[in-house]
Write a structure and sequence with these properties.
This protein has 356 residues and is α+β, with helices and mostly antiparallel strands. It has helices spanning 43-51, 93-103, 108-121, 137-149, 167-184, 195-201, 219-224, 229-234, 263-268; strands spanning 4-12, 18-27, 32-36, 58-63, 66-67, 78-81, 155-159, 187-192, 204-209, 212-217, 241-248, 251-254, 257-259, 276-281, 286-301, 305-312, 316-323, 333-338, 342-345. It has two domains: 4-234, Rossmann fold (3-Layer(aba) Sandwich), CATH 3.40.50; 241-345, OB fold (Dihydrolipoamide Acetyltransferase, E2P), CATH 2.40.50.140. The chain has nine helices and 19 strands. The radius of gyration is 24 Å and the shape is globular. It binds adenosine-5'-diphosphate. Residues 13, 15, 17, 19, 37, 39-45 line the site of adenosine-5'-diphosphate.
């Protein structure tokens, strides 16, 4: 069992920089939680507070109902995997994985059994006698994970573990981490700035900006119903298009363009009649149609899809992800319809959901 509870956690560094504000979350046993956000948003600080590598300035951290807010890192029964692997270059893979147990003077037979079991899980059985310098980046990262696995910790903590790998290896190692999670059924906290990693790995995502949690939810919840403008723009690639519009006469009027709405959308916006709002449309929710004219300036074929960039209305940039192999040339006019639309309050930047 490993249930974590972060309660009203703040972090204020010595130089009076507040890196984390009122972080609240209950992590269920066996959950894989991904903390995501741009550089400097406070995700590593949060992870390091959970690990015990940073003091918690205010609030409480509970592990299985026990207050561990002030417990030293070494007593927390957590293992951290870093982006730079932190392997010992003069030791073999075997020795690296055995190191913490050797230090604790565990029974050599137990050590041997645990290292072989971890190597098996990580497909490192044939690499045990090699030095880290003889391994690929992906294999080194697996050794770093092996070192965590042999400790059989209550909680695994990952700090940007894939950011030193090239794009192809990142994908492969990401899938290995998912399999590892399924196999170990362990509670994991994972930090990344990469929204793709968050969407593909997480049971639940915590999206952060400037030290504040913006939304906690499943990948689909963050993608489908982002809580505010920040989450809407951060999750999804290419990012959501945003337009300033006014809700008038049952339509959305922007600078030089008008968007038609469904009855349900008008209902959602009923409290905003005559007001300015922000309209958000994902590139993949734009299709060839009749509603809005776009003057194309770039056509990128990705194989199954084409990214078409253009201007609509009074020079507003828009990106559409069209199905198939489109062949628009710069200067072509494309007419599009907006499918699923997201609406945001101008003042609060919160999503307008239109509940009663
Ligand atoms: P992230 O992991 O999201 O990139 P961090 O948690 O590393 O962000 O940093 C959050 C904020 O705290 C940043 O403004 C950063 O400059 C600041 N910060 C991080 N570590 C320290 C430190 N040791 N002392 C002072 N400020 C720090």
């Amino acid at each position: 069992m490993a249930e974590l509870s972060l309660q009203h956690i703040d972090k204020i560094y010595d130089n009076n920089v507040q890196a984390v504000f009122d972080f609240n979350m209950d992590v269920r046993d066996g959950e894989l939680i991904v903390l995501v956000g741009p550089s400097g948003c406070g995700k590593s600080t949060t992870l390091r507070m959970v690990a015990g590598l940073e003091d918690i300035s205010a609030g409480k951290l509970m592990l299985d109902g026990r207050d561990i807010t002030s417990m030293p890192a070494k007593d927390r029964d957590m293992a951290m995997v870093f982006q730079n692997y932190a392997l010992y270059g003069h030791m073999t893979v075997y020795e690296n994985m055995a190191f913490s147990m050797t230090l604790r003077k565990e029974n050599p037979n137990v050590i041997h059994r645990k290292v072989l079991a971890a190597a098996e899980i990580l497909d490192l059985t044939n690499q045990l006698n090699k030095k880290p310098s003889q391994l690929s980046g992906g294999q080194r990262q697996r050794v770093a994970m092996g070192r965590a696995i042999v400790r059989n910790p209550k909680v695994f903590l990952f700090d940007e573990p894939l950011s030193n790998l090239d794009a192809k290896l990142r994908g492969a190692t990401r899938r290995e981490i998912l399999l590892l999670h399924k196999r170990l059924q362990a509670t994991m906290l994972y930090v990344t700035h990469d929204q793709t990693e968050a969407l593909t790995l997480a049971d639940r995502i915590v999206c952060m900006s400037m030290g504040h949690v913006q939304q906690i939810g499943t990948p689909l919840e963050l993608y489908d119903t982002p809580a505010n403008l920040f989450v809407a723009g951060f999750i999804g690639l290419p990012p959501m298009n945003f337009f300033d519009v006014r809700f008038e006469e049952g339509q959305l009027k922007g600078k030089g363009f008008t968007v038609q709405l469904t009855d349900a959308e008008r209902h959602t916006l009923r409290a905003y009649n005559g007001q300015d709002i922000t309209l958000g449309v994902r590139p993949e929710d734009i299709c060839e149609g009749s509603d809005v004219a776009v003057k194309v300036f770039s056509n990128e074929n990705l194989g199954m899809n084409t990214l078409v960039y253009g201007h609509m209305g009074d020079g507003l940039r828009v990106c559409a992800k069209l199905r198939g192999w489109a062949q628009y040339r710069p200067g072509d006019e494309l007419r599009v319809d907006f499918g699923r639309k997201h609406f945001f309050d101008k003042t609060t930047t919160n999503a307008i959901r239109g509940e009663a």
